[in-house]
Design brief:
Blueprint: E1 3-7, H1 11-14, E2 23-32, H2 35-47, E3 59-61, H3 89-94, E4 99-102, H4 108-116, E5 120-123, H5 129-132, E6 136-143, E7 152-166
Parallel strand pairs: 1-2, 2-3, 3-4, 4-5
Antiparallel strand pairs: 2-7, 5-7, 6-7
Length: about 180
């Protein structure tokens, strides 16, 4: 197990070096997206419309933050169960998504797409959303505001603690390749 600290803009160069169980402190721009937002993103892709963010090299955090208290950048912001995004993840990875952050295992199809695209799946600690929010320095809704906590947000992480759960060589904390 190794420890790394890097910026999200470097995810494509770091992903091939990371191995399951490595610890990561991640800084930089991350986009929130959950079930409802993923469905809309797929509709935009199907119709050839512009996406709310560039997929190539992006990092998506499967989270739906709580309302923001005064004087804070964001409310509690813990990970949601990632397998709910499994129907959408292979397509997004094939379009250049650099990494996903969530909790829990992923389907064999997602694991194959991670390997095929030299991407990575990172896990955040579930149940610690209030603590995780201390590593988020900015939050801005950028799409689908009507979805409330499930809207797409642009976050700025600063040393957000994560564990590599599935690496691009097929290593996994959840199952064998």
């Amino acid at each position: 197990m190794a420890e790394y600290s890097f910026n999200t803009s470097e995810i494509k160069s770091w992903a091939p070096k990371l191995r399951a169980s490595d610890r990561v402190l991640l800084s930089g721009t991350v986009y929130t997206s959950r079930d409802a937002a993923h469905k809309r993103i797929m509709s935009l892709l199907d119709s050839g419309e512009k996406l709310p963010y560039e997929l190539d090299g992006a990092v998506v955090y499967y989270a739906g933050p709580t309302p923001t208290p005064e004087h804070l950048a964001i409310g509690s912001c813990g990970p949601t169960t990632s397998c709910r995004m499994d129907p959408f993840a292979p397509r997004m990875l094939d379009l250049g998504l650099g990494a996903m952050v969530g909790k829990g295992g992923r389907s064999p199809e997602v694991c194959e797409a991670i390997c095929r695209n030299k991407s990575v799946y990172l896990c955040a600690v579930g149940g610690a959303g209030a603590l995780a929010s201390k590593c988020i320095k900015a939050c801005e809704v950028i799409a689908f505001e009507d979805l409330g906590c499930e809207s797409v947000k642009r976050l700025e992480f600063e040393n957000f603690p994560l564990v590599v759960a599935i690496d691009c060589e097929g290593g996994s904390l959840f199952c064998d390749k």
